[in-house]
Design brief:
Length: about 425
């Protein structure tokens, strides 16, 4: 299994190209099942999760043209079109690899009136049930049964529009119901909908295919069902979580980097916090230049609480915690979305961080320096936090189980190495 060797202490300097958003690309690819013609997706990142989704969609009957050879990052173009063959199940092997496989539920039931998806089970950050997806589909008239670890969703007469109120915000739940409702009869209202930019990107994509959707980006999304969706061409938004990850890496290493293609409008809360911590941002022609406001001064402590968009994203909690390990004073980071998203803490302690967990909060007391160590990645964003700490730590760190990183960060070593980092993948 591959590992990453990082020798820390080098400030990042140069340019980093921001890739297309994984969490936008995955639902958009799944939504392509709804189209009766060819769909073209641009700026698709080259990631393990994208390959898993492509395999699942090919299993379901899409013909996908996906370039395999690749020397540099910066966006593939995928063509997805119906092959004529149809399978309406998502097998356990693929769902186990990637929870986002459940995103095929809505499109399959809407278009083919049935779907069978393996229950995803828990994962490293929490139990992550899909009950809200299933209740939403039931509201649209589907029957849901669980047998042998598989969920069967059937709607032999097609789906019927309805009002669905989520008791709390779910991103992929909102996406699944929005996709299902595009081909349902009549009107669907999703109340307490997720407002994440990836949900808005999905709505834009569905509208380009001919769907009738209003209110995306607000609490209430309204969908008028149509008979059929056609093909379209769409460019995926930049990855705000990848962007935030590099912001933390630049901050902790006292670097100076231009993030090409970054869109900080999607990160306004994070940007505000980072300015408070001591980073400065200058808009450039192609993106944004990021560095410390005063390179002689340490970073300042922060008080953060994760929340659904536009709040502070849970997907950046681990990375900002890594950055705070070297900030002055005491930072408090509270996780409100997932019940078990502090797995990185034990690994950061191995590098000399001072962190105590109290329930859903982590109290981080800044230390003078981190020391390189062998550490283990536990999930995608936890892995990113270990890379960030290792880039600033004295000496060598070896990060194990980096297949997690490959699920969500395109060409991470190449991008960091170009900015001067000492980072290499070892077998
Ligand atoms: N939840 C339920 N029942 C449901 C659905 C969700 O109890 O039916 C709970 C979850 O267990 C969690 C909370 O609701 O406690 C919010 O989960 P949500 O459904 O919003 O998460 P998700 O849609 O499964 C997406 C991203 C995650 C990101 C979260 C939160 C994708 C493919 N995944 O997951 O991304 O952390 O929203 O923003 O979009 C990542 O990229 O590393 C990642 C985990």
């Amino acid at each position: 299994m591959d590992k990453l060797k990082i020798v820390g202490g080098i400030p990042l300097r140069g340019q980093i190209h921001i890739s297309g958003a994984k969490n936008a690309a995955l639902p958009l690819m799944a939504a392509s099942l709804l189209a009766s013609d060819e769909v073209i997706l641009q700026n698709v990142p080259h990631l393990a999760d994208i390959t898993t989704m492509a395999n699942l969609l090919m299993h379901c009957g899409l013909e996908i043209n996906m370039p395999v050879a690749k020397t540099e990052s910066f966006g593939h173009t995928l063509s997805l079109k119906p092959s004529g063959k149809v399978e309406t199940d998502a097998p356990y092997d693929l769902v186990r690899k990637m929870r986002a496989s459940v995103l095929v539920l809505g499109p399959l039931v809407a278009k083919y009136r049935r779907a069978k998806v393996s229950m995803p089970g828990g994962c490293a950050i929490g139990t992550r049930p899909i009950d809200l997806h299933l209740k939403g589909l039931e509201k649209l008239g589907a029957t849901v049964t669980l047998e042998g670890g598989d969920v069967y969703v059937d709607a032999p007469l097609g789906l019927q529009g309805a009002e669905i109120t989520f008791p709390f915000i779910t991103v992929t739940g909102t996406e699944n119901i929005m996709m299902a409702a595009t081909l349902a009869r009549g009107e669907t209202k999703i109340i307490n909908a997720a407002k994440e930019p990836e949900v808005v990107d999905l709505a834009k994509f569905l509208k380009a295919m001919g769907a009738k959707i209003t209110g995306e980006g607000s609490d209430i999304i309204t969908i008028q069902g149509v008979d059929q969706l056609g093909g379209c061409c769409h460019r995926i938004i930049p990855d705000r979580i990848e962007t935030g990850t590099y912001l933390a890496a630049i901050g902790i290493t006292n670097g100076d980097v231009e993030l090409i293609g970054a869109d900080l409008d999607m990160l306004s809360v994070v940007k505000g916090e980072l300015i408070e911590a001591g980073l400065s941002f200058d808009q450039t022609k192609e993106g944004v230049r990021v560095r410390r406001t005063d390179p002689q001064k340490s970073l300042k402590n922060l008080t953060l609480k994760t929340d659904p968009y536009p709040g502070f994203p849970t997907d950046l909690q681990a990375q900002l915690m890594a950055m705070m390990t070297l900030a002055e004073g005491i930072s408090t980071i509270t996780e409100t979305i997932f019940e078990n998203r502090f797995m990185h803490v034990a690994e950061l302690l191995r590098m000399g961080a001072n962190i105590h967990i109290h329930g859903s909060s982590a109290v981080v007391t800044g230390v003078e320096r981190l020391k390189g160590a062998p550490v283990m990645a536990t999930d995608l964003r936890a892995s990113a936090s270990l890379v960030i700490s290792a880039l600033a730590a004295e000496g060598e760190s070896i990060i194990g189980r980096i297949y997690h990183l490959d699920r969500g960060y395109e060409m991470i070593e190449a991008k960091l190495r170009r900015c001067g980092a000492s980072i290499e993948r070892i077998a």
